[in-house]
Amino acid sequence: MGRAKLPRKSTTIDMTAMCDVAFLLLSFFILTTKFKPAEAIAVTTPSSVASKVAPNKDFVLITIDKDGKVFLTIDDKQKRELVANSLNTAKNLGIDVAKFRSANFVGAPFSGLNSFLSISEENRKGNLLPGIPCKDSTNNELIVWMQAVNEAYAGAKMDLLLKGDNLAKYPSFKGVLTAFKKNNIQKFQMVTNPENAPVGSELYKKSMSGEKMDN
Amino acid sequence: MAELDTSGGGHKKGPGVKKGKKLSTRVDLTPMVDLGFLLITFFIFTTTMSQPTAMKLLLPDDKVKPEEQNKAKESGALTILMGADNHLYYYEGQLKPDASNFLSASYNGENSIRDVILKKKAYVRSIATDPNDPEHDLVVVIKPSQYCNYKNVIDILDEMSINVVKKFALVDIFDIEEQLVKKSDESAVKP
Questions:
Q1: Whether B23 contacts chain A with CB within 8 A
Q2: Do the chains contact at A15 and B32, CB–CB below 8 Å?
Q3: Disulfide: which of A15, A147, B146, B165 matches B29 by Cβ 3.0-4.6 Å?
Q4: Which of B36, B51, B161 sits opposite A22 (nearest CB)?
Q5: Could you tell me which chain A residue has the CA closest to the CA of B152?
Q6: pTM score above 0.80
């Protein structure tokens, strides 16, 4: 008996559809990637096992760069205005409120604040600025700043963040802590890079067993 | 003499002339797909999805009178001191006048501070009086010297959460201790 011959099928597949999918995905990933905005103050943060994501709006951020210089960023523009006004009345600094409002961060002693504000925004680079003096316990200007910030945020929830560089020396960190303590601020958060808990450690076992981590 | 074929395309070919083979317009897209997926994998791997995280820290209230501050039991106290160039020192209980219990440790690897903390933890558990809260007496005191950097402080604070130490305090260093740290830093051989 003669067997019916099966027609030989071609092994080549039409790749057009797959190609479409590949490039669609590619364009999706490229377009959704957000590039890190260039920061005026270059800081490499240390990593920690903390798993809570840092708040990204309405925060008050203190930055310590690698030379130990301290900068203050207030995210909310209205609060900036309040801070500028209260400093003007308390210390008679004569800050240009409109300029202060548009400044993304401050990093100068009170005496040089007006000249700091007269620098254009793109020329304010962390490494060229003096920073807020706080290392010296007799002249810790950050205390005054934090007091003004505290007043501006009176009654409202304040997310206080501290972002320090790996290489910043401890005295500047201590100066910042003193400024917090002097203003009765006991709670703040430190910005870090995420890191996994080391395998075998207690925290690792806890997270493996599904326990909630509170920090 | 050579002849030039000036005839246009429209003219009918003779019966003996073969038709030009029609080329397929289909292109093999396999290499293009390969390239596409290669790029996708490249972009996925090079993108860091990490968002900065925040670590919470509560500071002790300075205004509380010394008498009202909670005292640490000597048996459960571990003091960690940070020096320059990632040097790390610790002592248990109180610092002896001859500094014989002033020992050095490292951030990781051999003789790491994690082992020291875990050993201390096990010791506190073994002498605990309250079975419900065996780690009640464990207090880690962190004393950064002026020579250490911010990363060191974060590393040690992180170590507290890694080893689930509930009670720890960031305290100012004493002058004697600072001098001791400085001296040890200077004598330490760089690894």
A1: no
A2: yes
A3: A15
A4: B36
A5: A166
A6: no
pLDDT: which is higher, B93 or B11 = B93
> At residue B26, what is the residue type?
R
pLDDT 10s digits, A109-146: 888 788 888 887 777 777 778 888 877 777 788 888 88
Establish if B49 touches chain A: CB-CB under 8 angstroms.
no
Tokens of B86: 């990632």
Phi, psi torsion values for B74, nearest 5 degrees: -65, -35
- Domains of chain A, by residue range, sit at 54-194
Please answer yes or no on whether A50 and B161 come within 8 Å at the CB atom: yes
Among A27, A36, A39, A48, most B C-beta atoms within 10 A, so best to mutate, is A48
Architecture of domain B74-187: 2-Layer Sandwich (3.30)
CB contact (8 A) between residue B56 and residue A50: yes
Let me know how long chain A is.
215
Q: How many CA atoms lie within 13 A of A199 on its CB side?
A: 0
**Residues in chain B, overall count:** 191
C-alpha A73/C-alpha A81 separation (Å) is: 13
- Does B109 reach chain A within 8 Å, measured CB to CB? no
pLDDT, block means (10 residues), chain A with 215 residues? 76 83 88 72 82 79 85 84 83 78 81 80 76 78 84 81 86 85 83 81 76 50
Residue of B nearest to A206 (CA): B164
Q: What is the pLDDT of residue A215?
A: 44
Q: Count Cβ atoms within 10 A of the Cβ of residue A123 and give its class: 0-12 exposed, 13-18 middle, 19 or more buried.
A: exposed
